[in-house]
What we know:
Blueprint (H helix, E strand, L loop, with lengths): L2 E12 L2 E12 L3 E5 L6 H8 L7 E6 L2 E2 L2 H4 L2 E4 L11 H12 L5 H8 L15 H13 L5 E5 L7 H16 L3 E6 L2 H7 L2 E6 L2 E7 L8 E6 L5 H7 L3 E7 L2 E6 L5 H10 L6 E6 L2 H11 L2
Helix pairs in contact: 4-5, 5-6
Amino acid sequence: xxxxxxxxxxxxxxxxxxxxxxxxxxxxxxxxxxxxxxxxxxxxxxxxxxxxxxxxxxxxxxxxxxxxxxxxxxxxxxxxxxxxxxxxxxxxxxxxxxxxxxxxxxxxxxxxxxxxxxxxxxxxxxxxxxxxxxxxxxxxxxxxxxxxxxxxxxxxxxxxxxxxxxxxxxxxxxxxxxxxxxxxxxxxxxxxxxxxxxxxxxxxxxxxxxxxxxxxxxxxxxxxxxxxxxxxxxxxxxxxxxxxxxxxxxxxxxxxxxxxxxxxxxxxxxxxxxxxxxxxxxxxxxxxxxxxxxxxx
Length: 297
């Protein structure tokens, strides 16, 4: 897979404050890469350097294997701050102006309005748009030049749950279209639901980087309920059981490596027990995230 972004020892100091500290990262084509971290972890500063808004103190990065230039930036669409839109113009007119400034093909406008689900409101003035619609128009403006990469800084900030869900679906749609997306967020849920890969930053330092799918590996807990007095005893007899806890009448069985819920279900069935509740719980990104941040102390 082609590496679209390679970051090498990237550092940014603001006076005595080190906002980004010796950051190394790689993003491959087609990934939805989440930069995760609490506020003040250096996510926005990193994106600012990548987009040429602020200069690094030291270190370097390349886009598509070459140093950043005006030419490479043309392949990148970004929503870093709220873009400048004219309140008295329609969404459509704002995007036409945007396309003109970027030298983009205005034939793309119809497609991007469709992607962000604003086609039916394109003739309405920008000032009548809700916060979620404004954010969707910002994403549309970043897509007008048909970039290879889309960068989003906290795309759901300030939105209500419905607005957050809408942006999440749009990000998935853009990713399905084959674009590489780099998304900064402090919302674990957002990263777990839309990203393929993620990195955790804390006080400007990289704490962890890897696929989102790997988060749930290695630790599987199965919740079990059955109308049987000896269930707890039998669960201890199962060869795949690790630790067992009981919570509100539900047994939480930590599985040993290589054992899964179907193995436990088969064992109980052979003992004549039909479960009324059997559910696999993998480690959540939240748990992993807290472990990573905790280890850092």
